């Protein structure tokens, strides 16, 4: 399956601290030499980089427009919003399994696709960029699902862990802060996914 060069860029990036050395015994070794799998990984790494760049551009818009730039200054407000980080622990745990990591990336992309609706509503002047991000997230999720099927890996569907519809923001300020954290969490998610894919490409 071919993966659009822009879609993977979103997924991959904050695992510098992860215990990757523990992963070399993972059951992915037999796939590491597969040329199609390597092509998938490298295309999706590029795609994830592209998506990360688009998220960063929207973060700059939120910073410039609403002066919401530093996460540590907004943590108290965040507690009231009910916005949580989509889990990716299967991508950096010592019991790393490719199918579990891919499944969490896929499900997380779907969750952020929905969450970006709040950002779209807040930034109508940047609708084209937000809609591109939503499309890229959907495409990357589809690419990963297709690759999992092509490899014959078992698919795992993770429960949403209480993540339902977006919270009803009680004020314009809460909407702004909520969008700030959606983007910040998405960026972290993508960084983690990026590092996971990059690690697999080096096995």
Automatic annotation (TrEMBL):
One of its GO terms (cellular component) is extracellular region. Residues 1-25 form the signal peptide. GO terms for biological process: immune response; positive regulation of myeloid cell differentiation. Its main location: secreted. It is found in: Secreted. Belongs to the IL-6 superfamily. This is MGF factor. It comes from Fregetta grallaria (White-bellied storm-petrel). The gene is Mgf.
